[in-house]
Amino acid sequence: MVAQAHQLVARSIRPGVTTKYLDSLVEDFLLSKGAIPAFKGYHGYPATICASVNEVVVHGIPNDVPLEEGWILGVDIGAYVDGFCGDSAWTYPVGTIDSNAQRLLEVTKSALLNGIEQAVVDNRLSDVSHQIQSVVEANGFSVVRDFVGHGIGRKMHEAPQIPNFGAPGRGPRLKAGMTLAIEPMVNAGNYHVQVQQDNWTVVTIDSSLSAHFEHTVAITDEGPVILTAL
Ligand code: MF3
Ligand code: CO
Fold first, then answer.
1. Right CATH number for 2-226 from 3.30.565.10, 3.90.230.10, 2.40.50.870, 3.10.450.50?
2. pTM of structure
3. Per-residue DSSP letters for the chain?
4. Domain coordinates of the chain in residue numbers?
5. How far is it, in rounded angstroms, from Cα 195 to Cα 21?
6. Can you give the pLDDT at residue 51?
7. To test ligand 1's pocket by mutation, which of 77, 156, 179 has the most ligand atoms within 8 angstroms of CB?
């Protein structure tokens, strides 16, 4: 359901569209499928999606500002189906974007996918974290420290926390049946972020662009399975 909602967003993003409109599209879609939006009402969060434009890192609240050509938009979607939660974020280009923004999206997506490859039985949790950090820093970008991924299952946020940085070989040993939400947040500038007055919107302190990709992943004896991809 979360993956299908992202497909809907991908088809609908263009200059002139507002993030409130995208929020209503996703909410209507999830409800029509009997899925329950996971974010709305979570600690008072007011919307179904998070919509994080340009220097907004995560947790942007949908608004009435029309998207402009050249922007990037992070869309985070979570939903409960049959008592289990899925959580996935993707950063989309609005129309044509410049080459540095394009590179930021590609590196962040590749950091996520490389991290997921480390989500295998008998690895340790921080092997995932370390792999993500390595990919990001090898490409000259920085990993946000103040927000992390998480275990996920019957609740959206379960133990353990999953940093996107750190030394390998630490933390719990990974076992078949664990389900993780892995979600690198990557800044084009330095890694420092701050929360705005609305108590939700997280922005880069240096106003550099930021990207966010997230999948919910199951660890199995046959390797990692991405549950939020079609
Ligand atoms: N993917 C985000 C997370 O894992 C979504 C939470 S947004 C909130 O924390 F609004 F629900 F807080
Ligand atoms: Co998450």
1. 3.90.230.10
2. 0.98
3. -HHHHHHHHHHH--TT-BHHHHHHHHHHHHHHTT-EESSTTGGG--SSEEEEETTEEE-PPP-SPBP-TT-EEEEEEEEEETTEEEEEEEEEE-SS--HHHHHHHHHHHHHHHHHHHT--TTSBHHHHHHHHHHHHHHTT-EE-SS--EEE-SSSSSEEEEE-S-S-SS-SPBP-TT-EEEE--EEESS-S-EEE-TTSS-EEETT---EEE-BEEEEEETTEEEETT--
4. 2-226
5. 24
6. 99
7. 156
Q: List, for the chain, all residue ranges whose pLDDT scores fall below the cut of 50.
A: none
Give, using CA atoms, the residue closest to atom 2 of ligand 1: 76
Both tokens assigned to 151: 């275990």
Q: Whose CA is nearest to atom 8 of ligand 1?
A: 39
Residue-level pLDDT at 76: 99
Q: Which atom of ligand 1 is nearest to the CA of 156?
A: 4
Atom in ligand 1 nearest the alpha carbon of residue 76? 1
Nearest ligand 1 atom, CA 149: 4
| Ligand lying nearest the CA atom of residue 216 | 2
Give the ligand with the smallest distance to the CA of 78.
1
Task: Provide residues with CB under 6 Å of ligand 1.
Answer: 39, 42, 45, 50, 59, 76, 78, 87, 89, 150, 181, 214
